[in-house]
From TrEMBL:
It comes from the Bacteria. The chain holds residues 357 to 636 of 636 of the full protein. Residues 32-280 form the EAL domain. This is EAL domain-containing protein. It comes from Faecalicatena faecalis.
Length: 280
């Protein structure tokens, strides 16, 4: 979809008598345009950064990590991914960004063949899967950096799966066959459909932090998380719990049998240099 047309369309649809509505839409449109500009420049000038959030593997003591995009505006202030990722997806820029992340991750892993960090996961949007060359492109990148496919994991949300389930199943099984592992991201948000999840080749499920309301201490939240962990284990999947912010949560999840925890308690996302220094 043409980006400019999209903005105009929005403004045109608004009731003409409602000046405030139109103003709000125009302001939003201007801001989106600005973010898009920042993104375009940042790609050209290679100013996007990839940060890494370590994930603690409770049993083995090993760690893995999730790669997260970081963008600063012209003044050097961070633009949150929740702001720029949707614009990148809408405008098609997410493609460029995904390749930047993949390349950065592979480059970093190649430098540390013996690291305790066995794998790093990247987030992928719907657009990447529409690309028929996706599998080849990822495998080529891994090969170029002398990496086995098990060092890279791909996180997808249910939203991506539900877009076209038959197609996604096919793509994911093919890639999985080539050795690339998939994680189901943000489980517990949106339309969590267990039946659909069963049909995809996930090796790991990430429970969203929104399931941890008043946790521990809230019996409902505790029972829900406990049941989900048992369920996914019985399906042969590892369970990561996201958004762990304190020791009480970490301890309780360990007792419930969670395999891994990710959150500020273990580590915030780190710039590459810090992650490399302390974890790789
Ligand atoms: P996500 O995939 O669920 O990533 C985890 C988010 O939770 C990150 O937000 C991380 O900073 C945050 N987080 C981690 N631990 C805690 C905690 O203990 N408490 C709280 N409150 N938050 C925690 P971030 O980096 O702002 O990214 C937001 C979202 O943007 C990501 O959510 C992901 O959906 C998207 N995103 C980030 N990088 C990429 C990318 O390279 N490609 C795509 N397609 N999406 C990305
Ligand atoms: Ca690099
Ligand atoms: Ca993720
Ligand atoms: Ca998540």
């Amino acid at each position: 979809m043409d980006y400019v047309e999209y903005g105009i369309q929005k403004a045109k649809d608004s009731p003409s008598h409602d000046v405030h509505f139109t103003e709000t839409v125009m302001r939003e449109y201007e801001e989106e345009k600005k973010i898009l500009e920042i993104m375009q420049q940042s790609v050209e000038q290679r100013r996007f950064r990839v940060w890494y959030q370590p994930v603690s593997h409770l049993e083995s003591g090993f760690a893995s990590a999730e790669a997260l995009l970081r963008l600063n505006d012209y003044e050097g202030n961070p633009v949150p991914p929740s702001r720029f990722i949707p614009i990148a997806e809408e405008s098609g820029m997410i493609d460029d960004l995904s390749w930047i992340v993949l390349e950065e991750v592979c480059e970093l892993l190649e430098k540390h063949p013996e690291s305790q960090v066995k794998s790093i996961s990247i987030n992928m949007s719907m657009q990447q899967f529409a690309d028929a060359g996706l599998e080849k492109r990822i495998l080529d990148c891994l090969k170029r950096h002398h990496l086995t496919p098990d060092r890279l994991k791909i996180e997808v949300t249910e939203r991506v799966l539900l877009h076209d389930m038959a197609y996604m199943k096919n793509v994911m099984y093919n890639m999985n066959h080539a050795g690339i592992g998939f994680y189901l991201d943000d489980f517990g948000t949106g339309y969590s459909n267990l039946a659909s999840v069963l049909e995809f080749p996930f090796e790991c499920v990430k429970l969203d932090k929104s399931l941890l309301i008043g946790f521990p201490g809230n019996p409902d939240s505790e029972m829900l998380v406990k049941t989900l962990i048992e369920l996914f284990h019985s399906m042969g999947e590892k369970v990561v719990v996201e958004g762990i912010e304190d020791a009480a949560q970490a301890e309780f999840l360990k007792a419930l049998g969670a395999d891994r925890i990710q959150g500020y308690y273990y580590s915030k996302p780190l710039p590459e240099e810090a992650f490399e220094k302390y974890y790789l």
